[in-house]
Amino acid sequence: MQEQEQLYKPENVAAGHIMRAAFRVHSALGPGLYESVYEAALAHELRKLGLAVETQVGLPVVYDGIRLDVGFRVDILVEQKVIVELKSVEHLAPVHSKQLLNYLHLSRLKLGLLINFNVISLKEHIIRLVNGL
After folding, report:
1. Could you tell me the residue ranges of all domains in the chain?
2. What is the pLDDT of residues 42-100, one digit of tens each?
3. pLDDT in tens, 103-130
4. 104 with 112: CB under 8 angstroms?
5. N or C: which end of the chain has fewer CB within 10 A?
6. DSSP 4-27
7. CA 91 to CA 104: how far, in whole Å?
8. pTM of whole model > 0.70?
9. CA angle, residues 45, 39, 129, in degrees to nearest 5
């Protein structure tokens, strides 16, 4: 029963919508475009579903009690629950996952999706990362 409850947490429900929308976008546009194109299309698809979507959300760093606005930007924030970091690169590098984990840590959110659209098949290029808090 506890496993079934986990499936219906708001983060997981939103993640399911995000992944299905990402597949629709990738099927329509294919690989090879700028990240900003995929961001706009994915945000549009998610808004069509009635989800609360913010793009290019500033993420400050708090250091020694001081807020540092250092230019970190979350690509897409869905339902104030899931961070989506988009890439359009030849290959994902370990630093891309670390970047998303840092965003999750700084925002104190639990779930993030790293999606690389510059691939033939999107299936193996959506990475789900969880912040252990």
Report:
1. 2-130
2. 999 999 999 999 999 999 888 899 988 787 899 999 999 999 999 999 999 999 999 99
3. 999 999 999 999 999 999 999 999 999 9
4. yes
5. N
6. HHHHTSHHHHHHHHHHHHHHHHHH
7. 22
8. yes
9. 95
* Angle, in degrees to the nearest 10, between helices 35-48 and 10-29: 120
Would you give the end-to-end CA distance of the chain in angstroms?
24
Contact 104, 83 (CB under 8 A): yes
Residue 72 one-letter amino acid: F
Instruction: Tell me the one-letter amino acid at 109.
Output: L
Runs of H (alpha helix) within the chain: 2-7, 10-29, 35-48, 94-107
Alpha-carbon span 35 to 75, nearest angstrom = 9
Contacts of 22 (CB under 8 A, 6+ apart): 42, 113, 115, 117, 122, 126
The full DSSP string for 66-79 is EEE----EEEEEET
